[in-house]
Amino acid sequence: LKPFGLKAPPTHVRVPRMAGTVEALIFDCDGTLVDTETPYRQSLNEIVARLSAGAGPEVCPERWGAEFSGRGVQRCAELGAAICGAEVTAGAFLDAWLARFSELIAEPGSVPLLPGFDELYAHARTKGLRVAVASSSDGAGLLLKLRNGVLAQSAALKAVDGPGGFDIVTSNDDVTRHKPDPEIYLLTAERLGVAPERCWVVEDTSTGVAAGKSAGMRVAAVPNPYTKGNDFSRADVVLETMAEVIPLLNGP
């Protein structure tokens, strides 16, 4: 499967200021590790069409990137319900949407792993870094994406002993405030036993970048075709693939 099926974003590189030894690497999941944005948008549009009897407008890729990416499923369900009209509640929309989304990613390999993960993960482990995931997904949904997306396709993870290859996996179930609030990144750093300033975060949205920076971490933005129009001015560096993060882990 090809991720996204859209034109790749341009590369914009700025040299970040380094401060302190890097001890941990923290990944966002959706749109960063795996292309869940495509099945999320597809399933949302299907549910909008079903619940609005075809009257609701389709959410185009540009609108998805600007309004939906990185917002969390509850907020996206509120937006989807609003498109359908006053008679559709956010709760009803969320249930129907996530059920359809889960069908689309039910098989191993059904959600494409994005470029550069294997190289970056292997390098981080070689350097002895702790590796974690901090995602706006609910816990069950996150595990499904990791299982059928990352674990099913990553040669680097298949070579690792232990459950899943990540030291810590943090989801929206673990926090009360969601990105762009820094709570999920601060909690992940605490669980890792690593100071925030010694963590690099990999994110694909301005919302996620804001969360990482507000946590006092260094953040590499790797936009995908949906989020390339986001404002990444707060990121320490903006790159094209995860593999380009590797030199940043070699700093002092």
UniProtKB/TrEMBL annotation:
A Pfam family per the record: Hydrolase
InterPro entries from the UniProt entry: HAD-like_sf, HAD-SF_hydro_IA, HAD_sf, PGP-like_dom2
UniProt organism field: Alexandrium monilatum
Protein name, per record: Riboflavin kinase
